[in-house]
Known about the structure:
Order of helices and strands: HEHEEEHEEEEEHEEEEHH
Strand order of the largest sheet: 4-3-2-1-5-10-11-12-13
Family: Belongs to the 3-oxoacid CoA-transferase subunit B family.
Distance between the termini: 15 Å
Pfam families: CoA_trans (PF01144)
Protein name: CoA-transferase
Amino acid sequence: MTGATRAEYCVIACAEAWRGDGEVLASPMGLIPSIGARLARLTFAPDLLLTDGEALLVRPDGTTEGWLPYRQHLALVTGGRRHVMMGASQIDRFGNQNISCIGDWERPRRQLLGVRGAPVNTLNNPTSYWIPRHSRRVFVERVDMVCGVGYDHAADARHHRIPRVVSDLGVFDFATADHSMRPASLHPGVTREQVREATGFELAVPDEVPPTREPTAEELRLIREVLDPAGTRTREVAS
């Protein structure tokens, strides 16, 4: 196998979000998170439940594995038995996420998706984020509207947890004293200075930031030959 591309490191970083979760519903939103969840199921997380996004449980190849009634889906969501990886139009140092609007809510400069299920997701089950373009437009000092709830707003939420934020530059978590964001690993070729420059708030950067782990030869084979032979992952992150 040839060396891994940046997109493949991102797949690995997304897959790792579900490591150790056990039998939970994995709900990836986005192409690379979806490949990552399926890769995790095929390798180190065989108990994951994968969904087609509606009413079916599926195998990594997309064939039907079971039926998920809506009432059971809600029970998983509100009981902490789901780990979703969402996108973010804005995210701040404490993990507050915005997918609703840019600018003042009463007169926004741009209308986005809307709040949707972000509050329920973030207060009731673990929520990670995937951001394919790490920039100051996304990583902001303060989000224009809180949709997904961050650590500074969710002190008493029973199942609130943000395991990781994955971007095209690295992996970030909130394992700091005040639950502010820090780099947990950087993808190959990315520097701490590059991450600081692309982030609109001061990151809690440790003295040593490890590299994102390399995919194994078997993981690369699964990504390239089984899960994404057409190479669609490069649509989100260029090689």
